Amino acid sequence: MSLFVEQRLHGVALSLRPVACAAAVFSVLGSSALAASMDEVVVSATRTEQRLSEVLADVTVVDRAEIERGGSNSVAELLSRQPGVQITTTGGPATTTNVFVRGASTQYTAVYLDGVRLDSQTTSGGVTWQNIPLALIDRVEILRGPAAAVYGSDAVAGVILLFTKQGEAGVQPFVGVGYGTHGTYRAEAGVSGATGVWDYSVSALREGSDGFQSKTVAKADPDKDGHSRTALNANVGLQISAAHRLQARLMQADSRSDYDNGTKKDNARYKREMQSAGASWIAQWSEVYRSTVSVNTSRDDYRLLPSNEETKTRLNTYLWQNDFQLGQYQTLNASVERREDQFTNPKIQDGEQSRHQNALALGYGVRMGNHSLQINARHDEDSEFGDKTTGSASYGWDFAPQWRISASMGTAFRVPTLYQRFSIYGDATLKPEEGNNKELMLRWGQGDNFASATVYRNKLTNMVAYSAGGVCGRSSCYQNVDQAMLEGMTLAGAYRAGAIKWHGSLDFQNPRNEKTGQMLARRSQRYATLGADTVVQTWNVGAEVQLASRRHDKEGDAKILAGYTLVNLSASKQIAKDFTLTARIDNALDRDYTLANDYATAGRTFYVGLKWMPQ
Predict the structure, then answer these.
(1) CA atoms within a 13 Å half-sphere pointing along the CA-CB vector of 346
(2) Shortest CA distance to 339 belongs to which of 492, 56, 108, 119?
(3) Is the pLDDT reported for residue 455 higher than 70?
(4) CA neighbours within 13 Å on the CB side: how many for 425?
(5) Strand duo 289-305 + 244-258: pairing
(6) Distance (Å, whole) CA 84 – CA 87
(7) What is d(CA 558, CA 163) in angstroms, rounded to the nearest whole number?
(8) Cα 37 from chain centroid?
(9) In whole angstroms, how far apart are CA 79 and each of 84, 139, 251, 343?
(10) Mean pLDDT on 473-488
(11) pLDDT tens-digit series, residues 127-163
(12) With 567 labelled, which of 187, 406, 517, 595 sits at a CA distance of 20 to 30 A?
């Protein structure tokens, strides 16, 4: 089943010492998210179903059980516990958030929610991570590495697919409440099920927090910076016949988040609205041919208070995807896709700008004995820039039972945002940013035990930066002036020893500006996650350690953000029939650490939740 109607089918610059440490860790550790069964079906690598054991790309799966067990406060926080991902926030979970995949900023990762593309045309662009309510997410797939030959613009460093719950046979209601430090609260309810030809899932959420003083400087607002959010999600499917299915989906999230504007006046806040909606028709025309037609739309709006400045992004996509099964071991995919962007902001020319892209994508996969090959190519025609062609090729060799070595290379691009081109700081002649990636991966898997080592090198050129000079007539403008090298090694896996399931990941990276030789801002050269889960009497308990080395707050700046070590603890227990109690302590040692200079973090926090879900 395609991504857009997916149903739950149930030269690297490293020193010798890090490599030696990595080898030791590789032998015993991994990521809990990667502990998913190797027979699990994923769709992120090619937009079609593949068993995880057959995927040549570097993919992580996080299911609902892992989300609930981890107790993260936001999607970004959940991602930060996965291999190859770091984040920064400017305060709490509802503040401005940047997610770095393999050292690349948010705008270089394409993000989809139930097949609906999410994006923003503001400043640097990229998805507004703080808009997405984690409580409504049922599953996450993280693809590390470029995938523009499959997804088009923005998939330079990776792709992240978010899925909400789908209805299954019977009726499954749930109600949950929770409370924690800083006045954090959550109330959620929903029902899912299937009857006859219909399946459905509906859920609602109200959550928020009093927050904490997010800035550490004297000129900051004196008040706490809290947030609140109301969200609704609905999925409805109709199985017209054995060969034809229709599906519709909608998510709406409205939020309010306070921020420090540096004037010692409170009531400075963002009001945000996020919506994603879509409809799909999937048709199995024969044993060898299946098609998917999807129409999707999303919007990302926010208003700044007290200035009342409003910004709106609209994104429409249309997809016709065709999948062919050529015998038992070959697949062919052909897709036609259109993307339309519209942006409204008082600082851009005429107050509103728009553009569109038309694309043709082809993919071919084959397995011959112990050898696998995947080739993809895509041609995008942009209304402003003209033609752009990208491609990728991956080869895998199963050289021994449970072992595979694979190599891949791919090109990617990213179109500058409408703000970067048409704002008062913009340049309408900006060129697309480009990426060229090569990587090598070694993977072992046996049942739920799994380990992998991936080495990558991604060169980015024509990067858009806000810097002195330019043609906009101001002291600084957006310009194609930068180029970067993102290179590193990621080690991940999982291993069960008796009653304990160990999990973890270890990253060495060297993301730098090639022109200046400086490290890119707020990226650690080394970071890791190590944890263990087990059962103690009737309690499911877990412990996790997150480590990160020091970072520069700004590129080339002398200000260094110190490294940190965080310890997180979690526990859950069925306390009565149909009732489950969960508890989590984050930063249990109450470490003082900083993700962005002059911005505070929450300190030690505690959260307890109770959920009723009839079995």
Answers:
(1) 7
(2) 119
(3) yes
(4) 20
(5) unpaired
(6) 11
(7) 41
(8) 21
(9) 9, 12, 20, 28
(10) 92
(11) 999 999 999 999 999 999 999 999 999 999 999 999 9
(12) 187
- Residues facing 104 on adjacent strands: 101
| CA atoms of 299 and 317, how far apart (whole Å) | 12
pLDDT tens digit sequence for 366-409: 999 999 999 999 999 999 888 999 999 999 999 999 999 999 99
Sign of the alpha-carbon torsion through 552, 84, 118, 275:
negative
Q: Tokens at residue 360, please? A: 């043709």
Quote the CA–CA distance of 227 and 320 in Å, as a whole number.
39
Name the strand (E) or helix (H) holding 182: none
What are the structure tokens assigned to 488, written together? 């590193």
Count helices and strands (H / E) in the chain: 5, 34
Lay out the sheet containing 116-118: strands in order across. Answer: 58-63, 139-144, 158-163, 109-113, 116-118
Instruction: Tell the burial category of 611 from Cβ atoms under 10 Å away from its Cβ (0-12, 13-18, 19+).
Output: middle
Between 62-76, 166-180, 327-341, the lowest mean confidence (pLDDT) is in 62-76
C-alpha 380/C-alpha 317 separation (Å) is 14
**CA 27 – CA 502 distance, rounded (Å):** 12
In the numeric block, the tokens 């050898």 are attached to 371
Q: In this structure, are strands 109-113 and 158-163 parallel, antiparallel, or unpaired?
A: parallel
What's the CA gap between 130 and 200, in Å, rounded?
26
What is the Cα–Cα distance from 35 to 60, expressed in whole angstroms?
Answer: 9
CA nearest neighbour of 557 among 523, 513, 518 = 518
**CA angle at residue 312 from 109 to 80, to 5 degrees?**
30
pLDDT surpassing 80 at residue 66: yes
HSE-CB at 140 with a 13 A cutoff on CA atoms is: 30
Distance CA 453, CA 506 (A): 10
Q: In this structure, what token pair is assigned to residue 95?
A: 């503040």
For 63, half-sphere exposure in the C-beta direction (CA atoms, 13 angstrom radius) is 13
Residues 342-358 have pLDDT tens digits of: 999 998 988 899 999 99
Q: Write the secondary structure of 177-235 as one string of H (helix), E (strand) and C (coil).
A: EEEEHHHEEEEEEEEEEEECCEEEEEEEEEEEEEEECCECCCCCCCCCEEEEEEEEEEE
CA angle centred on 493, ends 489 and 497, rounded to 5°: 140
Residue, of 2 and 390, whose pLDDT is higher:
390
C-beta atoms surrounding 165 within 10 Å:
20
Residue 16 identity: L
